[in-house]
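Slide 14.
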Amino acid sequence: MRHISRLTLSLSAIALACALGASGPARALDEATKPKTEESAEPKREESKDTKREDKTEKREDKTGAQSEQKPKAASDEKSAEKAAEKKNKADSAAYLRKLGQLIRARAPGASNLGEGSAVVRFRLGASGAPSGVTVVSASTPKHGELARSIISGLRAPPPPGGSYDGVQSFRFH
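Slide 15: predicted structure.
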């Protein structure tokens, strides 16, 4: 009877070893014939505890890794928000400059009795959109410079983005 149970045990071990990919029946027989004692069972329990500890450590590292992935993600979100704000500011500035150009062209005369000439004027628009510090940078004649200065001085623009705007405008009179 003892031989039969050992044979059954050996056959079971061979089948298990083959299923697990062991190298041949000799290895399965060696493993099957080893008697199991309490000493051999205890280290397995300790190994499983160690394995569990390692698994917990890996899980903590995974969580830590996930948190560290979130930090760069948050930084990239901040950068994209900054880029979006910068794009919006540029778009607002471009729209303001288009509007300002329209207002200046509306105030400029189509023709003048001064003849052909040019002028360049530097100015600052305050928070209210009113011009201040209008100076003539260059002009073909003093009269052309004075005309350009009066066009900008009488300008009433909407409040500029950012609170103020420093500009230079050139005029070409026909």
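Speaker note: The chain has four helices and three strands.
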